Structure formats: C-alpha cells, structure tokens
C-alpha cells in the first residue's frame, strides 16, 4: 500500500493513523512484534516517518519499544483500564445529569440519529461501526452541554479502556445491552430526568467490570499479568 506523500508530517500522520486503527481494532493483536522495516515496506515509505509514528504510539501506550530488541504491540494493562473507567464513570454521570438541564435540540437530533445507526450496525453485525458510533454517542453528550474540553482530557487516559471496549464488541456479546443503555440515557436526557440519566450512565460504565473477567478467560495472552 502506498501512502500519499505530500510532506514528511503528512506521511507520519498517515502511518500513525493506520497503525493506531490496526492496534485499536485488533488487526494487530497485543504482543505482536512489528518493525520499522516491515512497516516502511508495507506502506512504501522511508523509515523516518515510521519511526516517528512508533514513538507517538509508544507515548500513547499502544507500542512498547525495546532498543536493540524490537517493538511489539503493548499488552492491555487492566490497572489503566480501571483508572480510565473510574474517571469516565464519575465524569459521565455528572455530564449526563447536566445534559438534562442544558442540551441543544441539535445535539438531541444527533444522539437519535446515532442510535438509529447503532441499530443498523447491530443488524449487520458490524462491530467496528458500532464501536465508532459508541465513541461518537458519548462525544455528543459532552459536546451537547459544552464540555468538549473535559472529553478531550478523558481521551488522554482513554486508550486502554477503548481497547477493552472494542474487544468486548468483537467478542460478540452485550451489543443489545449497550444499545438499550444508550437509548435509555438519551431518553432520560430528552425527558429531563437527571437522576435516571445518572443511574444509567453509571450502570453503562460498570459493564466493563463484568466483561473484563470474561475477556481475560477468552484472551489471556492479551493482558499484562
């Protein structure tokens, strides 16, 4: 595959995006060894942008670089997953409650449109699309009550949490539960029921606690011991 080579930064950004997507969506599974040579040949680019992309992915916890030994896709650290889940649970409960007081019609329209697309993804068994829609759903809630910067802060810790969420969807369970909780959150916001919105948001983020035990049994090699 040849990437569009307009400038070095553009090439690096493209390589970063391709690799990040491959890691987040488990096309490159945890523990997989990759090399600058392999990636530069795959995308027909020099090693410099590949090296820069590797360094960025390492900073974000997606790659582990061992000088003189090689690079591998990082294993999932469950301690980091729990920290991110704890932060998201407490912030999302508060934001769901706030959304019941101030949420634009445009944002509600976007939530409802998102839910229809989630239904389609479930019918089509398209878990990659459902994962992207899940992220967009939560983003819309934060943006709808003017808390976009808080969502940006969450993203700085969100990588391990997003990885386990995708794995959960790929494992083909809880799709309808996730959709039903999303729909209930949207309905609570629309009908201005802050207590209900807060309760469902908390339940929604606690799903990962149960699901991770199932995932550890099914994919033991994907997690740090």
Automatic annotation (TrEMBL):
What Gene3D superfamilies has UniProt attached to this entry?
Answer: GntR ligand-binding domain-like, Winged helix-like DNA-binding domain superfamily/Winged helix DNA-binding domain
Gene Ontology MF: a single term: DNA binding
Domain HTH gntR-type, which positions? Answer: 9-76
Q: Does the keyword Transcription regulation apply?
A: yes
Q: Does the keyword Transcription regulation apply?
A: yes
Alphabetized CDD domains for the sequence: WHTH_GntR (cd07377)
The entry's keywords: DNA-binding, Transcription, Transcription regulation
User: What Pfam families does this protein's entry cite?
Assistant: FCD, GntR
The protein depicted here goes by the name GntR family transcriptional regulator
